[in-house]
Amino acid sequence: MDARGAALTAGEGQEAAALLERTRETVNPQLRRAVESLPGSMRRVAMYHFGWEHADGTPAAGGTGKAIRPALVLAAAQALRGPGGEVEDAARAAAVAVELAHNFTLLHDDVIDRDVQRRGRSTAWTVFGIPDAIITGDAMMALALRLLAEDSHPASAEAAARLTACVIELCGGQQADCAFEQRPHVSLDECLAMATAKTGALLGCACALGALYAGAGPEEVEAMDAFGREAGLAFQLIDDLIGIWGDPGHTGKPAGADLIARKKSLPVVAALNSGTSAGEELAALYAGAMTGDDVRRAADAVERAGGRDWAQAHAADRMGRAVQQLSRAVADLGAAGGLLALAEFVTRRTR
């Protein structure tokens, strides 16, 4: 990358970081009020999950995550209506609802994947037990729909219907992901479809909700949804790379966590379907339990089989498709700077 490209990337990264920080400032007060409305034990689990409390209920500094999905809601609304506090205020309930829905999935995913760490802390199910973590996740999803049902914005009913359909699709993607772990062979097309449902659907829904709250027509809403889905698939590709090669000090998870769990992530499936000797070596490793040296050997096999390069190239391709979809909704892409900065952020992050 030349100096000009590096400077542009740094500038986009700074814009995305500022947008994410502003989103947290805008969304977190209402998000916290919603969580605090939960009954006792569920409230305690949720407050811990969001990083606002320690396990014993004492206050914590808070670590609510990157806020990418609510930021997409607000950025999509602003791309279609222009920047300003009025736009943020109008779409805030939708942004909070999307973040609650996202955290519903995180609580459940941690149980399903038996993940013991998230954001550098013990996961909720390891602290409070599986039943309480699952039930709290269910309550968060109900909170998301209640927020939209009680919102006076004219788009709230359509937004609630769209979020509900998205979560059903997302659950289908999660179910497929779990099923893949039990299958000896998964095609790349199957894995891409699963990732689109599991990750792309919610990012697409976030952008679509922002468009709805901006008063956009059906064509613009669908284009925004398509933009989010393509960007979401790029996001998942990068996330899968981090799941193999990410720094545990930054990810808050053990090195090679996805390999230890023998997950059929996109780089892994690309490697397994590569027809190479490295792909065969990876298949043999995946046939047994993986610990210690096996994890390092598996990561090396994925790379030698071309899985890492394929994932990086495909992420860039999907982002190109995302920009094409965005241009259908926003004639002047200069007005969509926030969305583009966020898309650049999620596809260039390393943790």
In short:
The protein is mainly alpha-helical and 351 residues long.
Question: What can you see in these coordinates?
Answer:
There is one protein chain. This protein has helices at residues 3-36, 40-49, 68-81, 85-113, 124-128, 130-150, 156-180, 188-213, 218-245, 248-251, 257-260, 266-272, 277-286, 293-304, 307-329, 337-348; strands spanning 117-118, 121-122. With 351 residues, the chain is mostly helical. It has a two-stranded antiparallel sheet. Strand 1 (117-118) and strand 2 form a beta hairpin. The longest helix is centred in the first third of the chain and has 34 residues, at 3-36. The radius of gyration is 20 Å and the shape is globular. Residues 1-8 have low confidence and may be disordered.
Percent helix: over 70%
- Report the mean per-residue pLDDT as an integer: 92
Q: Overall 3D geometry?
A: globular
Low-pLDDT regions: 1-8
Number of helices: 16
Class inferred from helices and paired strands = mainly alpha
Number of strands: 2
Secondary structure layout:
Elements: H1 3-36, H2 40-49, H3 68-81, H4 85-113, E1 117-118, E2 121-122, H5 124-128, H6 130-150, H7 156-180, H8 188-213, H9 218-245, H10 248-251, H11 257-260, H12 266-272, H13 277-286, H14 293-304, H15 307-329, H16 337-348
Give keywords:
mainly alpha; two-stranded antiparallel sheet; 1% strand; disordered N terminus; 16 helices; 351 residues; 2 strands
